[in-house]
Design goal:
The chain is of the alpha+beta class. About 35% of the residues lie in helices and about 20% in strands. Belongs to the peptidase M24B family.
């Protein structure tokens, strides 16, 4: 029997928990690979609650339930999740463990799926609940799966080879380097469960997860350089198996856990941030020694080869022309009042599709008109869609997946026909100044992203304002649009990636912003490549950024009086390069629009 209401689904879950003698259950947004985006089969939180955000969790108890989200989703959770069924809790101020301890009596048993949480999370939660006399129970199966009658099956999509001309390195070479590392660390094998790492090591791609070209699978690399790839056999065409060769043994995905027995008595590397609790637990059960080590693919994957860098430049140029066609169309149509957030996002996608090279979007387009633009991770839906009103601010953050690269760009535009208010121009120009400051900075090798973050915020800080997201994230090569380990963000240590030194070959976003609640949002985002720099009289080795994204920036929102001569020169040089890159791809009205948009300040 299919349950159409979220109330009925919650009731069914509570009946299942009672059958298992449980007093509660954790429901995260997660899959067994801890992916940022998860397949339809793993959308358990959305099915149960209706929540469509990309970060959050729920806790279901016998008589109470709560949704835990951060400040990005304060409005969205109230729009999508019934307040009669769930309390709204804001993290990090509200902690699930504290809420459970308040609601549950001593002796309560709270379940969790060990394939959806890290070991660190489980240990910390176990310790917190134990203080209240509450037991945390690792379950053999997920109770939501038991009541979700029409739960989708995992994707059957075939995998395909990512050609060496795009990767610049053969898979055998990558496995060999991992094998050398294992031997140096006196380890026998490594379990790799992050989907983009599996794809990178094997030079394969898939279509199992929206927006990220990966395949649901696990990989064990042995110290002799051979590997066991656990994937549904029907997903692997003969030509892929042949290309991988005999050194990669293809085994059924559902045999992954049973294969741990082969590791008995061995020292096995497992990444505690990218692998779930169950992997550690099962390895220990069979007598293996799981050793906490960072996934050996993470850092080399982030340092792009010459082939990957060239691919990115080609993808950015192609994508830039598509976005420019969209901006020209938008400038003509939006002031008529006939465009809304959904139709704008669809039109932008159509321009990318017209390239004939688009394989997917790299994430759901953030199409934010007016007040919705102030939600920095806004996701447009039929329920929230706003029109692009004349004389308003529109923010569009989007990207594409192409065989040669992954793009991510944000532009903020003024929907005419009137002049932007002075405050909007002031804020936009301060964001622009921060963007330029980061783009032009040189820095010594060994510099972490956290050391650069304030460069992008300084002009906003001078006005007493800030933004509540990081300034830059890593980007993959036809892989995840959000890729570690590097970041440009506040803080260090506790914020993963901010202590990672930036290394030549890494690609990051440069995306400062400003958001005025209930009014408008501003963000300017380009992708940049970390490159070596020569400085006269320099001592030691230095780095800087090569800009990869070339699309005009909204001139009507710039307050020229706030820019220094050096910043004006950056603007003019940047737009000269935009014209150089894009003009050969455009013609007619689109070329005329580009010429006008690239005029010097």
């Amino acid at each position: 029997m299919l349950m159409q209401t979220h109330e009925a689904r919650l009731s069914a879950l509570r009946e299942e928990l009672a059958r298992r003698e449980l007093h509660g259950f954790f429901v995260p947004i997660s899959d067994e690979h801890l992916s940022e985006y998860v397949g339809a089969y793993a959308q358990r939180l959305g099915w149960l609650t209706g929540f469509g955000g990309s970060a959050g969790s729920a806790v279901v108890l016998k008589d109470d339930a709560a949704m835990f989200v951060d400040g990005r989703y304060t409005i969205q959770v109230r729009d999508q999740v019934d307040g009669k069924l769930y309390d709204y809790k804001s993290v990090p101020a509200d902690k699930p463990g504290d809420w459970i301890a308040e609601k549950c009596a001593e002796g309560a048993r709270i379940g969790f799926d060990p394939w959806l949480h890290t070991r660190g999370w489980a240990k910390a939660m176990e310790k917190r609940l134990a203080k209240a006399g509450i037991e945390l129970v690792a379950l053999d199966s997920n109770p939501i799966d038991a009541v979700w009658a029409d739960q989708p099956e995992p994707s059957p999509a075939k995998v395909f080879i990512q050609d060496d001309k795009f990767t610049g390195r053969m898979g055998a070479e990558k496995r060999g380097e991992i094998a050398d590392w294992l031997k140096e660390e006196k380890l026998d094998a490594v379990v790799i469960s992050a989907l983009d790492s599996v794809a990178w090591v094997l030079n394969i791609r898939g279509a199992d997860v929206d927006h990220t070209p990966v395949a649901l699978s696990y990989l064990m690399v042995q110290a002799d350089g051979t590997a066991d790839w656990f994937i549904a056999p029907d997903k692997v065409p003969d030509e892929v198996a042949s290309a991988l060769g005999n050194a990669v043994r293809i085994r059924p995905r559902d045999s992954f856990e049973a294969a741990f027995a082969e590791l008995a008595g061995k020292r096995v590397a497992v990444d505690p941030e990218r692998s779930v609790y169950a992997i550690f637990d099962r390895l220990e059960d069979v007598g293996a020694e799981p050793v906490q080590e960072t996934d050996p693919a993470v850092l080399p994957k982030a340092i792009k080869t010459e082939a990957e860098q060239a691919g990115h430049r080609a993808a950015q140029a192609r994508d830039g022309a598509a976005v420019s066609r969209f901006l020209n169309w938008l400038e003509g149509e939006a002031p008529k009042g006939t465009v809304d957030e959904l139709s704008a996002a669809a039109k932008l996608q159509s321009f990318r599709e017209a390239t004939g090279e688009l394989l997917d979007l790299s994430f759901d387009t953030i199409s934010g008109a007016g007040s919705n633009g102030a939600l920095c991770h806004y996701r447009v839906s039929e329920e929230t869609c706003l029109p692009l009103e004349p004389n308003s601010v529109y923010l569009v953050d989007s990207g594409g997946q192409y065989k040669d690269g992954t793009t991510d760009i944000t532009r903020t535009v003024w929907v005419g026909p009137g002049e932007p208010p002075a405050e909007v121009k002031d804020r936009f120009t301060r964001v622009l100044k921060g963007h330029i400051a980061l783009d032009t900075q040189t820095f010594p090798t060994g510099t972490p992203g956290s050391a650069l973050d304030a460069l992008a915020r300084q002009f906003l800080w001078q006005a007493g304002v800030d933004y509540a997201h990081g300034t830059g994230h890593g980007v993959g090569s036809f892989l995840a649009v959000h890729e570690g380990p590097q970041r440009i963000a506040k803080g260090s240590g506790s914020q993963a990636g901010t202590d990672q030194a930036l290394i030549a070959g890494m690609i990051l976003s440069n995306e400062p912003g400003y958001y005025k609640a209930n009014e408008y949002g501003i963000r300017i985002e380009n992708l940049v490549l970390v490159e070596e720099r020569e400085i006269e009289g320099m001592e030691g080795d230095w780095l800087g950024f090569e800009t990869l994204t070339f699309v005009p920036i909204e001139k009507r929102l710039v307050d020229r009086s706030l820019l220094s001569e050096a910043e004006v020169a950056w603007w003019n040089d940047y737009h000269a390069k935009v014209r150089e890159v894009l003009a050969p791809q455009l013609e007619g009205d689109n070329l005329a629009w580009l010429e006008d948009a690239c005029q010097p300040l």
